[in-house]
Amino acid sequence: MKIYTSYFSNGAKLAKAGIMMIGIALYPPKWFTGLSNKYVSPSWDILHNSKSKEDYVQRFNSEILAHRDPKAFLSAIEKMANGKDVALCCFEKPDDFCHRHLVAKWLNEKLGIQVEEFGISKNPVYSEQSLF
User: Fold this and answer.
1) Which residue in 6, 30, 12 sits closest to 115, CA to CA?
2) Residue 121 pLDDT grade (very low, low, confident, very high; cuts 50, 70, 90)
């Protein structure tokens, strides 16, 4: 199983790639009928009362991730995935700040799992095209 991060509006591309969406937002969109796992969702207070990005990161790490077991989270995701690749989804676009990037970093630091944003290539492949 490969784990990606992505955002809810990317659902059609994820489905086409055979990747199962798992929502990790505190409040998934009403139209989203897929599976959700709120074990690593930010609290209401963190979402609404963080004073800055730095404050949000500090609070999310100390109030949420510091009290979570990454192995338990991975086990739950594996059961939900049933052998499929998954994308941990929230609302923000890839270049926008989002807690899913903090979760990806946490999984890497704690379990050595490389989690990439779906559709973002670190090494773009360029093909030579002929002018004729």
Assistant:
1) 6
2) low
* Cβ pair 31, 52 in contact under 8 A: no
Cα pseudo-dihedral 44, 48, 51, 52, rounded to 10: 90
Q: Beta strand 35-36 with 3-7: parallel, antiparallel or unpaired?
A: unpaired
Of 81, 80, 72, 82, nearest to 107 by C-alpha is: 72
DSSP letters spanning the chain: --EEEEEGGGHHHHHHTTPEEEE-SSS--TT--SEE-GGGPPPHHHHHH--SHHHHHHHIIIIIGGGS-HHHHHHHHHHHHTTS-EEEEESS-TTS--HHHHHHHHHHHHH----EETT--SS---------
pTM: 0.88
pLDDT in tens, 75-119: 999 999 999 999 999 999 988 999 999 999 999 999 999 999 998
**pLDDT of residue 129 exceeding 90:** no
